[in-house]
Amino acid sequence: MSHLLRQVAFCGKNPGGEHLAIKKIGAPIALDGEKEFKQNVTNCNKSLSALKSELGLVQAQYEGQENSLEALQKKHEVLSKSLDEQKSKEEAVRKGLEHARESYEKVGIGLANLNKQQETHSKKLEDLKQDYEKATDRLDKMTKSGNSSEQAIKKQKAVVQSLSDELKKEETALGKSVRQSQKVKRIIKPQGTA
Known about the structure:
Blueprint: H1 2-7, E1 22-25, E2 29-32, H2 34-61, H3 69-145, H4 150-188
Helix pairs in contact: 2-3, 3-4
């Protein structure tokens, strides 16, 4: 669970109303709010621990008179505070889980978009490779036949060079898309899986 919250925390405002900082990892993922979430849970745990100690003091203070009205009222007061803290902790965890779920949904959409981009780049790359192959074949035929003018050959060389440049550009774009996709998959991979 803590790994999940570490990987995809939440957005919004902290209890004081200030906007929380957002750390970007790749294009589609924003990690934030983890520190505030942990702090809220830690504060609740500390309060619960203090209330447990307070209950122990009340029991020690009223030892021998545990069932007196005053002792029962004090116990009730401490236990009510304890229940309120538990509710606060439960609410903080519920909000944390909701934010994590929403963030994972956003990451899933971002990953789907990256996969779509990757498919688009792959298709375009294949098309460019075919066009490049045809252009180089045509240039070879023009050069070997001797029937083509120097200007036509020069024009065909420019086409081949242009396709070559576009191929390199598309290979770079595909590589970037693959790296981003892999980075996102590593981030969302559950802890302990290979």
